[in-house]
Amino acid sequence: MLVADSPPLELDLHRLELRYAGARLLEPRAVEQLARSIDKNGQLVACIAVAVPEAGQLVLLDGYRRVAALRRLGRDTARVERWDCDLAQGLISILSRAHGRAFAALEEALLLRELIQGQGLSQHEVARRCGRDVSWVNRRLQLLCALPDAALAAVRDGVLSIWAATRVVVPLARANSEHAAGLLGALRGQPLSTRQLRSWFEQYQRAPRAQRERLVGHPHLFCAVVQQTETQRALERLRAGPEGECLIDLRRLDGLIARLRKRLPALCAEALPEALVPALARLQRTLEALQNELRRYCDHDLQRDPPLGAHAAHSRQQPARDQPAAQALP
Questions:
Q1: Per-position DSSP letters for 267-328, written without gaps between them
Q2: pLDDT tier at 316, thresholds 50, 70, 90
Q3: Averaged confidence pLDDT in the chain
Q4: Among 1, 8, 133, 302, which one is least packed by beta carbons within 10 Å?
């Protein structure tokens, strides 16, 4: 493990070369929280830098969010711990350290690419010096191969989450690069949450070509409509109450049973498929138990408030209100 060659120094920010800023995810919310913490308690954790003689500056290895937070606060100095090593060893030590903020997989991939392309190390050498296997290095690098540069920049700037970049933008770019670029352009002005992007992409996959053009051009309009629909459904559920939700479940169950009854004859025309045997047995037990429960609920309801049973019989025994009793007739 590397140690500092001197106690942390208070250095001017302009003396730090932010060479690897592109390999870090700023995440504006995290920077804002860190700025509030530094404003209240001071800079508790020193940044880490390495002296590079040819650059004439200290290259910042760790602490990019701290530097961003200090600049947000209008500070012009930072506490910096200087490591006595070369850049390659410093980056490897940052990657393999056990303390500090855990790096996102994309940050690891960017640092690994710098070690291989910038520092000239092989994947085997990087894996050995990081205490990892080559497959881990290769998996991380594959993240970068599929990610468009615009998406990578959006992730670094906090406009796009890593999940949305890999699960939405990457497959979209492979299928239609123009649509991927259009979506990223729309998100630049007003980002969407990961949940909203997941819903948007699900709709995009189902939509015809003309509708896809509108979805790409106006993703926020789609999300606003979805939000309005969800709000309306929530109000309807609130209005219906638990009995309304139960009625919806019963209707869905009735529809599923009807669909299953249509499919089973075609599947079991010759012999029951082996995969269905245990599933149908479980379903049979479940339905038998449900039938017993339903019978108990219905019997209990008739005994408590019998509008269809005892009340009907009682109405047959009692005379009409506007007619005399039978014994009163001559």
A1: HTSSS--TTHHHHHHHHHHHHHHHHHHHHHHHHHHHHHS-TTTHHHHHHHHSPPTTS--GGG
A2: very low
A3: 84
A4: 1
